[in-house]
Specification:
Length: about 220
């Protein structure tokens, strides 16, 4: 890797490490209506969860992320379900602080390695992790976490890849989040249990705040 790319990777990794200190629980958010975005973000922040992932799974996602960035300054907004270099450009244009992907194609890794926005590529195997590391990404999303081998898989990957750090997502919930976070190579976990679609549709902001508070308390304990 050329020196300029190494410097850029180092800068991205530092920015990402600073952001992840606001974790370690990242709500994975799918918004169907833009009008729900700001009250949802405020409910999560009130519950102690500032690091958010707005997934690009709906037509409302981009406008929702923009509204949160504009109106909820305490929220740290990341764009998830980044599948292509164009999605990565979109995340940066929206003003997202970071971006995440459930996987990583060679084109996406190459584009992300040339970008300044902190990026968390998705991996499920040792080979995929090696590709991410080769492009300068030391923190990756382990997805789908439970289906891809769960906690034993991350313990196994710690041996040959001691420098790698993980944000597992997929099957993480209130019951097992703390177990994942006890692993030395896990810096954060992602999940939708604190902001389920049914609660968002019902605009149950108080319930979402309560779930967020319980999640924060559970890991402190």
């Amino acid at each position: 890797m050329p020196q300029d790319q190494k410097d850029l990777a180092s800068s991205r990794n530092k920015k990402l490490a600073d952001l992840l200190r606001a974790g370690p629980i990242v709500p994975v958010i799918t918004l169907e209506r833009v009008e729900d975005a700001v009250p949802l973000a405020r409910a999560l922040v009130a519950g102690g969860l500032r690091l958010l992932e707005i997934t690009l799974r709906t037509s409302a996602a981009a406008d929702s992320a923009a509204a949160i960035i504009r109106e909820v300054p305490d929220a740290i907004v990341g764009i998830g379900t980044v599948l292509t270099p164009k999605d990565l450009e979109r995340a940066q244009a929206l003003g997202a602080r970071y971006a995440l992907s459930p996987g990583a194609t060679p084109d996406l890794l190459e584009a992300a390695s040339q970008s300044e926005i902190p990026f968390i590529p998705g991996i499920a195997t040792a080979s995929e992790l090696m590709a991410a590391l080769a492009h300068g990404f030391q923190t990756v999303k382990f997805f789908p976490a439970v289906a891809a081998g769960g906690i034993p898989a991350l313990k196994a990957l710690a041996g040959p890849f001691p420098q790698a750090r993980f944000c597992p997502t997929g099957g993480i919930d209130e019951k097992n989040a703390r177990d994942w976070l006890t692993l030395s190579n896990v810096v954060a976990v992602g999940g939708s249990w604190v902001c389920q679609t049914s609660d968002i549709r019902a605009q149950a902001w108080g319930e979402i705040t309560a779930k967020a508070q319980r999640a924060v308390m559970s890991i402190k304990e």
